[in-house]
Write a structure and sequence with these properties.
By secondary structure, the protein is of the alpha+beta class. It has 9 helices and 6 strands, in the order H-H-H-H-H-H-H-H-H-E-E-E-E-E-E. It starts with 7 loop residues before the first helix and ends with a strand.
Length: about 350
């Protein structure tokens, strides 16, 4: 009986596998039992870089979340207005019903279910106009009123449905963004745990770096003595006073800030109202070139903007950067475009 031939590749694979197993056996013989090879410990700069990268993701998600909250508030206010309008229209329609009943009774000599009432309950203006021939039996002024109410109620119903759909979608978006932020925050917690697991010498080195940075920030926080005056000057002075305070997404002071929360409150100190969202702040401000910056101008990253800082002069800006970092100075050159509130 002839046996099937084994392909050459199968022999080569078997030899490779045996060699690998042999090497593993040799390695097992060298290492003590129960000892595993640990992954190389990351350095402080590596861990800090990972935290900064994750923090940037959180910042982007936070700004999208802030934008969704603004849109949600607008949609809910519009829905409330439409509900109030609906109540007024319903009251007008109710007041008209008795008059329509009298007209229908007089026109049809006691017939049940007058045409006018059918039009009113239909709520469809096209149906109303399609049956316009029947309106010859009703006073012309009353017909105009009925037509106006039918059109208004139809439009109002459509608008309320649209707003309800918008609000539902925005709430869904808000929920999704919150879930993403929770996920990123969990990753940040893991990286901070990695920092905590560093060797005692490395932790001491990191703590010394942080103390040095805090001392510098406190010294710089004292006052602003630059050329900005008026609202811009007040905004810059406010930003200086926040140096060293921690980042917190959604924060708008007095102890924590996110990027747009900082710039919003800075300009609020100057009497100017800005929304709590980077892209929205750009949309309500006047664009200026990067070569024409003045203290108080807002600097942006991304399109639409996902990060914002306030220019303070001498090529520097103040920003609330990301989770795990404090309000600090940064280079204005790292931003893409600018606007003036």
């Amino acid at each position: 009986m002839a046996f099937p031939r084994v392909p050459v590749l199968a022999h080569r694979y078997r030899r490779s596998l045996l060699a690998t197993l042999g090497a593993s056996a040799c390695l097992a013989g060298v290492l003590p039992a129960g000892v595993s090879v640990a992954a190389p410990q990351p350095s402080i700069p590596q861990v800090k870089a990972r935290i900064a990268a994750l923090g940037s993701q959180v910042e982007r998600i936070a700004e999208r979340y802030n934008a969704a909250r603004i849109q949600l508030g607008t949609a809910e206010r519009k829905a409330a207005t439409l509900r109030a309008d609906a109540g007024r229209v319903q009251a007008q329609v109710g007041a008209l019903q008795s008059k329509v009943g009298q007209i229908a009774a007089a026109t049809y000599r006691g017939e049940s279910g007058g045409t006018a009432m059918t039009f009113l309950s239909d709520g469809n203006p096209q149906t109303f106009f399609d049956r316009a021939s029947a309106l010859d039996q009703i006073a012309r002024s009353q017909a105009r009123e009925l037509a106006a109410y039918a059109v208004a109620r139809h439009r109002l119903t459509a608008a309320r449905q649209a707003v309800a759909a918008t609000v539902a979608q925005l709430r869904k978006t808000e929920k999704a963004l919150a879930a993403n932020k929770s996920r990123i925050a969990g990753l940040l917690a893991q990286e901070r745990s990695t920092l905590d697991s560093l060797q005692a010498k490395q932790r001491a080195e990191l703590a010394a770096q942080q103390r040095s940075q805090q001392v510098q920030e406190v010294a710089q926080r004292a006052s602003y003595s630059g050329p900005a005056t008026g609202s811009a000057g007040a905004a810059v002075r406010f930003a200086y006073a926040q140096l060293g305070k921690p980042y917190q997404w959604g924060g708008s002071g007095p102890s924590t800030y996110d990027c747009s929360g900082l710039t919003m409150m800075a300009w609020a100190a100057g009497g100017v109202s800005l929304p709590h969202n980077a892209a929205a702040q750009y949309s309500v401000s006047r664009p200026v070139s990067m070569g024409a910056l003045q203290p108080g101008d807002l600097l942006f990253m991304g399109s639409p903007a996902y990060h914002v800082a306030i220019y303070v002069g001498n090529g520097e800006a103040i920003e609330a950067p990301y989770t795990g970092a404090d309000v600090r100075f940064t280079s204005a050159g790292s931003f893409s475009y600018a606007a003036r509130p």
